[in-house]
Every structure is written in structure tokens, then in C-alpha cells.
Amino acid sequence: MNSSESFQFPLYYNKEPFFTIQPIINTRKIQLQMWQDLILAYSRSNKIYELDLNESIKTNLNLFNNEKINRKLSRDSLKIIFDDIIENGYAEWIDKEKNRVLIMWRKPEEWASLIYKWVSDCGFLNTVLTIWEIQNGDDSKKQDFHQLNTTILLKSLKVLEKQSKAQTFSSDDEGNLGVKFFSI
Amino acid sequence: GNRDDGKISKTDKAVLNLKIQRDKLKNYQTQLNVIIQREVTIAKECAKQGKKNQALLALKKKKYQEKLLEDSFANLQNIEELISNIEQAEIQNRIFESLKQGNEALKDIQKEMSLEDVENLMSETEEAIQYQNDISEALSGKFSQEEEDALLEELDQMEKQ
Lengths: 184, 161
Fold this sequence. Notes:
Chain A: Belongs to the VPS25 family. Chain A: InterPro entries: ESCRT-II_cplx_Vps25-sub, ESCRT-II_cplx_Vps25-sub_N, WH-like_DNA-bd_sf, WH_DNA-bd_sf. Chain A: Its main location: cytoplasm. Chain A: This is Vacuolar protein-sorting-associated protein 25. The complex is a heterodimer of chains A (184) and B (161). Chain A has 184 residues and is an alpha+beta fold. Chain A folds into 2 domains: 93 residues, Arc Repressor Mutant, subunit A (Orthogonal Bundle), CATH 1.10.10.570; 74 residues, Orthogonal Bundle (Arc Repressor Mutant, subunit A). Chain A is built from 6 helices and 8 strands, in the order αβαββαββαβααββ. In chain A, helix 4 crosses helix 6. Chain B is mainly alpha-helical and 161 residues long. In chain B, helix 1 runs antiparallel to helix 2. The interface between A and B is medium-sized, with 19 and 18 residues.
């Protein structure tokens, strides 16, 4: 996991009550929104796309565990917070046990626009690109979507497919995917 | 939406295969570089500790990996050249198709406008111009010199306004 030294935690991260899910509905609503903002900002800063909740508790991930004030989120609180983030469309459960979560600090639609613009600017329209080269190619190194999570990348490509701006396809049985982008 | 295979040609699939091989080669090169770095580190450590044989062994391994890396560059170049050739051929093919289409469109337009049609149109126009001149002459004969001068002066006044 990347070091989170460059990430600035907000002030409310150091307040004890923040780590206990509030009983009063209105307060809770605000609190959940703050947790969502914090989690998405932290994930964005560290380019985190997936989280294993049990693991993060075991390893005392600083996002959920503030050692300075000796407070941390319980496993139940985590579920409540993430259920809310998922309802707002910024995350998805990866497994049935609801332990691993896919974090979409940027939604597929936004990634889709970014990628399409890059493809267009680089003169890649109407040529074939591999999924791998979008994530890892030399041309993608300076882009935000460098090393983008594959699940999210595929979702973004689906968005483009619906807009008739792209078509994914495979050429062999190994499931290696390629994509062709079209000018509209 | 539906997978519209009409958008993806056989050539596209062939190019994809080549690009997948290219990606695998690049990945392989990254791995080789990691191993090479590791052997260098081992060699340095062993040299420092006076373990000559082990240092030498590490250097031999490094040499071998470097040879593999060199070979992979040759393979990579071949693949990239082939990809480039195919993509260029596709572009040229599309240009050729466009030229063919443009040429046929031009022929169709020219069919509707034969030389005979143009000559007929030109002579009709000439007749119309002649007719106009005849009328002007006929009209001009109806006015006396005095009336003509008055008309000219009226025109002058209009121009001065």
C-alpha cells in the first residue's frame, strides 16, 4: 500500500465522536457524509481502488484508526459507512461476504471522458488498443488512469460502448481484451 | 448495447493479437530488469564480504539475463514493425476506397450534365439575351429626342441624391 504521508487528514479526523456512529439521524447523516468525503479523498490521494475491510482493521489502517486519539471504527460502523457510500454510487461490494469493496472515487462516466479525450488527442481513434496498454503503456504513464483498476476501466469502456464511441473485443480464448475507439 | 461485430474486422483482431504479444514482451522486459538489478545488488554485497565465488556467480547470472533482454528487444522491434505495417496498409486501403468512391460520384454527376445539354443551355441563353435587346431597341424607337433628354436628366437627379 502506498504511504499516506502526503495525505492531509481533515480536522474532524481528530475528534473522538467522529469514530462512533451517532444515534441522532440528522447528526448521523452529516457524519456519514464526512466519512464518505474522507474515504474518497484518501483513496484518491493514494490511488486505492479496492479495500479489504477485515484486513484494514487487522493492519490498523490509519484511515479508520486514529492512534493519536486512540479511536477506531468498529467493523459494524465500517459496514454502515460503506453501505451509505454504496447507496450514493461511489462504491460496490466485490464479494458476497461484503468484506471487499470497490471504491470509485471517480465514477466510470468521468473516467470514460478522460480516456476518450486522451485517445482522441493522441491520434488513437480507429486503431486497436489493448486494455493493458491503456493501464500500463508508455503513453499512459502521465495520465490519471495509469494503473487504473481493471474492473473500473471495463465499466468506463462500457459507458463509451453505449455512446458508440468504443467497442471492446477479444481475439483469442485467453480473454485478453482489446478496444477500438471511434470518432463520432 | 449489442456487440456490433460489423465494427471489428479480422484485421483488427490480428492487430490485437500482435499487440497482446507486444505487451507480454514489455512485461517480460520489466521482469528481466528486476532480476538484473537484484543480481547486481547480490554481487556488490558478496564482493564487499569477500565472497568472490558467489559474486562471480551473480555477475554471470546478470550477464545471462542481459542477453535475454537484448534478444527480447529484437523480437519487440519485429512485432512493432509488423503492427505498423498493417496499420499503414489499412490507412492506404481506406484512402484508396475513398478515392474510388469520389471518382464514381464525379462520374455520376457528369452523366447528368452531358456536353449536348450544356450547348443547348448556352444557345437558349443566347436567344434570351437577343430577345431582350430587340425589345430594348423597339422601346427606344418610341421616344423623341426631347423625351429621351428629359429621361436622362431625371436619371441624373436620382444619381445626385
